[in-house]
Amino acid sequence: KNLRVAFIGLGAMGGPMAQHLLSAQFEVTGFDLSAEARERFAAVGGVPAETVAEAFNGADVAVTMLPNGKVVQDALFKDGAWQSLSADALVIDMSSSAPNDTRELAERLHQKGLRLVDAPVSGGVKRAVEGSLTIMAGGASDDIDQADPILCAMGGQIFRTGPIGSGHAMKAINNFVSGAGVLAAIEGVLLGRTFGLDPRTIVDILNSSSGKNNATEVKMKQFILSETFGSGFALGLMAKDIRIAADLSKALNLQLPTLAGTADAWDAARHALGPDVDHTKIAQFVKDQA
Ligand code: NAD
């Protein structure tokens, strides 16, 4: 029988991801708080629902792609929405949630006879549209086996990271390294430009040298120097992810000064610019502070 999938969160990432499930012939019912997101989903052949419970109606699998783990728990448990899922449904949280929230959610779901896999993604809107996301999956291996056809429809590479929450821990680590790289690239270019170097030349040389990273290879020219700031990943989401990594280091009693400083810088930028601007706008904040 064809798996029935409920997809909750049809935003910048969830929209194109759900579209790949439709292309792979899954029966997908979707819900998002935003009417515009629901309309976009309907326009590509999805069945939009008016509530989470309506989307869940008899679904074998629930996929969540929401801002954070708290929102995921709300969506599943508010008004008893989970009761509309099929009896032993699998929940796949693909949001970038905090690993400790994920463990708590797994426990809550378990008590209801439901199972959870955490399967956050990397690659941004571009690779969500291509269906070539990197996916990091945590949970019981039988559950990940069951999730696999769904994950394969959206992802290029699927890594199994270990027990529940380990995918979300890995995602926070990735975004710490990525977010630190963005700041280093911005500060490096600002330093060079102030000295008198040409910014595009700086980026070209970094990319031909040991200083290259995703920010120098993609974000710097495409979104920052061009001042288009259109990566599709919000500043508030990046700040949240790096704070998750910083909280994790605290919980594990590790002093990691670069992580702490990176989390503080992204939080300060979120405070100054608001959570909804593109995360690449942190370049303006760095410049103003400098
Ligand atoms: P987004 O803001 O574009 O989408 C989130 C969607 O969730 C919105 O459409 C919003 O209306 C909806 N929503 C919020 N609360 C809801 C609720 N209670 N019920 C139903 N819908 C609700 O964000 P996004 O960029 O798609 O990010 C989603 C997740 O993926 C986040 O955890 C983010 O950190 C992560 N992520 C984003 C990117 C990226 O490049 N944008 C990349 C990797 C991971």
TrEMBL record:
The keyword Translocase does not apply. The keyword ATP-binding does not apply. SUPFAM superfamilies: 6-phosphogluconate dehydrogenase C-terminal domain-like (SSF48179), NAD(P)-binding Rossmann-fold domains (SSF51735). InterPro entries: 3-OH-isobutyrate_DH-rel_CS, 6-PGluconate_DH-like_C_sf, 6PGD_dom2, 6PGDH_NADP-bd, HIBADH-like_NADP-bd, HIBADH-related, NAD(P)-bd_dom_sf. Keywords: NAD, Oxidoreductase. One of its GO terms (molecular function) is NAD binding. Belongs to the HIBADH-related family. This is 3-hydroxyisobutyrate dehydrogenase. It comes from Rhizobium azibense.
